Amino acid sequence: MRLSMKQGLLAAGGVFVADQITKLWMLDLVFDPPRILTLTPFFNLTPVWNRGVSFGLLSSHQDWMPYILSAVALAISIGMLVWLRRATPGLLALALGLVIGGAIGNVIDRLRYGAVVDFLDFHISGYHWPAFNIADAAICVGVLLILWYELFQAKPARQTS
Predict the structure, then answer these.
(1) What is d(CA 142, CA 136) in angstroms, rounded to the nearest whole number?
(2) At 45, is the secondary structure helix, strand, or coil?
(3) Interval 70-126: pLDDT, tens
(4) Other CB atoms closer than 10 Å to residue 67's CB: what's the count?
(5) Which residues are catalytic?
(6) Among 61, 68, 102, 112, which one is least packed by beta carbons within 10 Å?
(7) Quick one: which H or E segment has residue 94?
(8) In contact, 6 and 89? CB cutoff 8 Å
(9) Res. 69 pLDDT band, cuts 50 70 90
(10) CA angle, 146 as apex, 143 and 151 as ends, to 5°?
(11) Residue 158: what are its φ and ψ, rounded to 5°?
């Protein structure tokens, strides 16, 4: 197995484990019974069942929606695993691993609970960022790193004439 594949899979595994452990902890701490824990003037632990994708988009109470969203996330993860096999070690492998681990973490929630467990709630002056979790944060950071890599580090393909 190539070094880049190992790096990416290690990142994916780390994100997945951290995500699932924190979700289980939050299910006991703030979901049962549901309550908001204020930790700082700008940060709460808030129980949210996200039935959609990022920021609750495509939220639906249809019984089949978690399966559709899970299938899409799994297809994207498989595509990223193929990309990871071809990636060179370093930033791109890490970024792909972050996205893969986060996507799989949220798929597990959808299949287990029918929704994603969100609990990190940042706010300022009455404005709240939508609640999220470790998987969501890893996906966002991973996507930003992929964009950074593709824009500033990837070598342009040679054109043949």
Answers:
(1) 10
(2) strand
(3) 888 899 999 999 999 988 878 999 999 999 999 999 999 999 998 999 999 999 998
(4) 13
(5) 118, 136
(6) 61
(7) helix 91-113
(8) no
(9) confident
(10) 125
(11) -75, 140
Q: Model-level pTM? A: 0.87
Cβ–Cβ < 8 Å for 8, 89? no
Burial (0-12, 13-18, 19+ Cβ within 10 Å), 93: buried
| Tokens describing residue 106 | 């949220």
DSSP β-ladder status, 127-128 and 43-50: unpaired
Q: Which of 85, 123, 70, 91 is nearest to 5 (CA)?
A: 85
Amino acid identity for residue 23 in this structure: K
CA distance 41 to 93: 36
Q: How far apart are CA 92 and CA 80, in angstroms?
A: 11
98, two tokens = 């972050």
| 11-38 b/e (C-beta count within 10 Å ≥ 16 → b) | bbeebbebbbebbeebeeebbeeeeeee
Which residues are registered as beta bridge partners of 56? none
Q: How far apart are CA 50 and CA 33, in angstroms?
A: 17
CB count within 10 Å of CB 153 equals 12
| Single-letter amino acid, residue 21 | I
In sequence order, the β-bridge partners of residue 43 are 40, 122
AA identity, residue 81: L
